[in-house]
Structure prediction request, 122 residues.
Amino acid sequence: MQSVTNNFTKSVPTMLSQQITVYEYILKDLTVSEKDYITQTQNDINREFTPVIGTPSVGAGTGCCKRMKAYMIDHVEQRPQTMFQESAEEVKRQLEAMVRHMEERLVDKTDEIFHSRSSLLS
Prediction:
């Protein structure tokens, strides 16, 4: 019986070392996938960040580019504080959703590791 206990005691560090290696791999994989997710999401969010400017009726033909430019200059001068407000709020909403997604993934993965560790020890 003593030899079985000794063998078990000697094998525990090896088993724990192997588990740590597996957990490190799982967390590294999660880190890579979340980094890719963040990069893609940030790119998508950046595309959403555009000023909200009403479309004027400038007509067509001679001078339409001048009229459009005049409208844009006027709009920026008249509404410097509110021009980006709507798009900034949308960007904020999307960034918060990205953070929630990452939090959920990290909690799920750490729970998975904890539960697999608990089941091995029982």
